[in-house]
Specification:
- The protein has 463 residues and is mainly beta.
- Helices cover 9% and strands 45% of the residues.
- It has 2 helices and 29 strands.
- It has helices at residues 44-53, 429-458, and strands spanning 2-8, 32-35, 62-69, 75-90, 96-102, 107-108, 121-127, 131-139, 143-154, 169-175, 181-182, 186-189, 193-197, 200-210, 222-224, 240-242, 268-274, 277-292, 294-299, 305-310, 315-322, 326-335, 343-354, 361-367, 372-376, 380-383, 387-392, 395-405, 417-419.
- A hairpin with a 2-residue loop joins strand 27 and strand 28 (395-405).
- The protein is elongated, with a radius of gyration of 28 Å.
């Protein structure tokens, strides 16, 4: 027996805007879990972005509360939380779209199980047009924990997945979803938490859960997630530099100060492992350039940025998460995979800006038509000079001090680097060549002028 309550979130509806056409991820991702976000008010950057990006529409969010009871009508499993899903899917035209799936006001809880010493507890909900979500809990003599989440979404729901190429239910499983919690304690996490797997991001906040409830009484002692505890390291927001434009008002000008020069971002070192071996290495400084209404530069702070992703023989993905407010994904592929001489290159970049308070998407942009940062397989690519990746008309990424090797990393070290042309020793020849061409043109014009004058004088000579 279970009691279910679904009610709308009391806070006002949030604003969101998609800045670019999404595109496919080159490969499925290993699951990732990050506890995040300070429960304090949002940083100035996010407030600015909310105002900057405006409103493209809003939707209602619902809180879920499930009280599972045993045969004696006492509570054995209790949970209350909010969640949202970001899903990338393929359309009939073979392009990819991003969609947001929210809990509806009509939710059921069929299949929830109390669990015992030999059987796992199960919290399950069903909602919308054939969508379902569940998490199972196991316990030891002292603790309980969430083992895995099973999420099924149905692309036959045309309201959420218009023009979907693949029809029917699609199921993903995410393992190791919650750290052990002391029995009789209730787990609480007000701040945003998310998991990523197979083109799906599951976002949770305002979570309260207790499995294997003893004597039907919810525990009074709380086990908080790391983001909620005051002893956790404070989240340092990325450096932001606002770019200002000159005023053309006809009123008497007020005293102004010159804008502070934009500083280059700090360089971060990132890596991925496959088992015990490093499979991807990256060193780069990243700066976002958001330009809608007003330009905004955001420096990614490597001290608050974590790396995740997946390695493969022909595809590798690096995902950077800056304090769970900025998610940047880089996808690398091997071209001429069947040839004897192979090269890798950057194919796709995805950027998502999230609201720290509720996990809502402020903006999302994706470009899967890149052909940059190419180098021979087994070597690395380096470019110390600034480069620009154009994600869409509203968003660019500037890279500094780039050094990347997404394949065949040996001994946890970069292989020999292939440098970009801007870094090469031949780069100094460009101004020399331009100068020589201009000099040649000047000489050519001068000679033509002299010849022209001689011909004109010959026509006026006496016969």
């Amino acid at each position: 027996m279970a009691r279910f309550l679904s009610r709308p979130l009391a806070s006002p509806a949030r604003h969101s805007l998609t800045l670019g056409a999404p595109a496919p991820a080159a490969g499925s991702m290993e699951p990732r879990c990050c506890c995040c976000f300070s429960s304090s008010s949002p940083p100035p950057r996010l407030l600015f972005l909310l105002l900057l990006l405006g409103t493209s529409g809003f939707f209602q969010s619902y809180a879920v509360e499930v009280d599972v009871k045993d045969a004696s009508n006492t509570t054995c499993l209790y949970a209350k939380w909010m969640m949202r899903f970001l899903i990338k899917y393929e359309t009939n035209s073979s392009d990819y779209k991003n969609t947001t799936l929210n809990l509806s006001s009509s939710v059921t809880h069929n299949g929830s199980v109390c669990g015992n010493d030999t059987q796992a507890a199960l919290l399950a909900v069903q909602f919308g047009e054939g969508h379902s979500w569940s998490i199972n809990f196991t316990k030891t003599n002292e603790t309980y924990q969430g083992d895995f989440i099973t999420f099924t979404y149905n692309t036959n729901d045309t309201a959420v997945f218009p023009d979907a190429k693949r029809k029917g239910p699609i199921t993903i499983v995410v393992k190791d979803t919650m750290r052990p919690v002391q029995l009789n304690n209730v787990f609480v996490c007000h701040n945003t938490d998310f998991f990523e797997a197979e083109n799906v991001t599951q976002i949770f906040w305002n979570v309260t859960v207790q499995a294997f409830v003893q004597n039907g009484t919810i525990g009074k002692k709380e086990s908080r997630c790391r983001a909620d505890t005051p002893t956790s390291a404070p989240t340092v927001p990325p450096t932001i530099a606002n770019v200002t434009t000159a005023s053309t008002t006809t009123l008497s000008p007020a005293p102004t100060t010159a804008p502070k020069p934009v500083e280059n971002p700090d360089t971060g070192n990132y890596s991925l492992k496959s088992g015990n071996k490093t499979c991807l290495l990256a060193t780069v400084g990243l700066q976002l350039n958001v330009s809608q209404d007003k330009p905004l530069l955001i420096n990614i702070n490597p001290k608050t940025t974590s790396a995740d992703g997946a390695c493969g023989n022909t595809t590798a993905t690096l995902k950077l998460n800056d304090g769970n407010s900025t998610l940047i994904g880089f996808t690398f592929v091997v071209k001429n995979a069947s040839a004897s001489v192979q090269k890798f290159y950057l194919k796709e970049v995805n950027v998502t800006l999230l609201n720290r308070l509720n996990g809502s998407v402020i903006s999302n942009a994706d470009n899967n038509n890149f052909s940059k940062w190419d180098a021979f397989l087994g070597s690395s690519y380096m470019c110390r000079k600034e480069q620009t990746l154009e994600i869409n008309e509203y968003l660019q990424i500037h890279t500094f001090n780039l050094w990347i090797q997404p394949f065949l990393v040996k001994a946890n070290k970069f292989s020999t680097a292939e440098e970009c042309f801007a870094d090469s020793d031949l780069n100094f020849l460009i101004p020399i060549a331009v100068g020589m061409v201009l000099g040649f043109l000047i000489i050519l014009v001068f000679v033509s002028y002299i010849i022209g004058r001689r011909k004109s004088r010959t026509g006026y000579q006496s016969v």
